[in-house]
Design goal:
GO molecular function: phosphoric ester hydrolase activity; zinc ion binding
Number of strands: 9
CATH class of the largest domain: Alpha Beta
Bound molecules: zinc ion
Keywords: Hydrolase
Oligomer: single chain
CATH superfamily of the largest domain: Metal-dependent hydrolases
Pfam families: PHP
Order of helices and strands: HHHHHEHEHEHEHEEEHEHEHH
Organism: Geodermatophilus aquaeductus
Shape: globular
Strand content: 5-15%
Protein name: Putative hydrolase
Strand order of the largest sheet: 1-2-3-4-5-8-9
């Protein structure tokens, strides 16, 4: 099924009209990540049929449920998601639609973590816009109770390791995910120092997609195209040890094109005693169920459920992020 997930992510990332054009010109399989079988399944799904290959697969392996039991059980312990985007930054949907999708999945909370100002390509929020968003979230929370939208940010980590938002605002947010989005090819010593500073920052709760790798190409806003890229180089043992020391959770990013950290680094983080947050980094409501990907990897590397902060209740979680 991994091939289908990859193919789905590739199709998801296509610009408007591109899927139709590729179907009519029979050039779907020119795309990296789409083979003849997945290509045929996409064409059939697009025409509204149950893809023949999928149907045959299901018939032949009716005992093969989409998720292994242990993964499904792990997934069922998650109460929320700590990394999501709305159309305030580079997501495609209003906050309310993201929250309603999270409610439909059975989540109790969702941290709204739109981008910080420096990430202009992702329409990052200035301090003023973030203040306005906090009011919007407060009003939605009254309406959606007992579901809870936790206020938050995905904050850029500057090259010097500082965070891309005012201290005052960072202090008011429920959840701060800190991520590297620039200078990804820096040499290891510089990247390590940068990440260590961010992890030690008392405002930081979660270290987002730590290696920055992209497994397949993807489209961004305004037709910008990102090519696959390798992991950033950094001293993972030092960074993960600092996460343990400062109580910063390591994110298990579930986006199919990220799947970050890679398994060997995830195993190292487990061994060093890190806490984790299994997040989708969803930019659309349908992506909120990508946590399956992260749970698969957590089970594979022996992550203990108790070490996953988003298995906790919202109150427990807030005790931790403000503590
Ligand atoms: Zn990010
Ligand atoms: Zn993100």
């Amino acid at each position: 099924m991994a091939a289908f997930r990859t193919a789905a992510a590739v199709v998801d990332a296509l610009p408007e009209g591109e899927l139709e054009r590729r179907i009519s010109t029979r050039t779907l399989t020119d795309l990296r990540g789409i083979g003849p079988k997945t290509g045929a399944a996409i064409v059939q799904a697009h025409a509204g049929d149950v893809p023949e290959y999928l149907a045959r697969l299901e018939e032949a392996h009716s005992e093969l449920v989409p998720l292994a039991d242990d993964v499904a059980e792990f997934r069922s312990t998650l109460r929320g998601d700590l990394h999501t985007h709305s159309d305030w930054s580079d997501g495609g949907s209003p906050i309310r639609e993201m929250a309603e999708a999270a409610i439909a999945l059975g989540h109790e909370y969702m941290a709204l973590t739109d981008h910080s100002p420096r990430l202009t390509v992702a329409n990052g929020l200035t301090a003023e816009r973030l203040e306005r968003q906090l009011d919007v979230v407060a009003a939605l929370n009254e309406e959606l109770h007992p579901f809870r939208i936790l206020t938050g940010i995905e904050c850029d980590i500057h090259v010097d390791g500082s965070l891309d938002q005012t201290d005052e605002l960072l202090g008011r947010l429920d959840v701060v995910v800190a991520s590297v989005h620039s200078d990804l090819r820096a040499e290891s010593a510089a990247m390590t120092a940068r990440m260590l500073a961010a992890v030690a920052n008392p405002h930081t709760d979660v270290l987002g997609h730590c290696t920055g790798r992209l497994l397949i190409p993807r489209e961004q806003r305004e037709g910008r195209r990102q090519r696959p890229r390798p992991e950033s180089a950094f001293d993972a043992e030092a960074v993960f040890s600092a996460c343990v020391e400062h109580g910063t959770a390591v994110e298990i990013n579930s986006r199919p094109e990220r799947l970050d950290p890679p398994l060997r680094l995830l195993s190292l983080a487990v061994e060093l005693g890190c806490s984790f947050s299994i997040d989708t980094d969803a930019h659309a409501p349908g992506q909120l169920d990508w946590q399956d990907n992260g749970c698969e990897r957590a089970v594979e590397t022996g992550v203990d459920v108790d070490r996953v902060v988003n298995t906790w209740t919202a109150d427990e979680l807030l005790d931790w992020t403000t503590g």
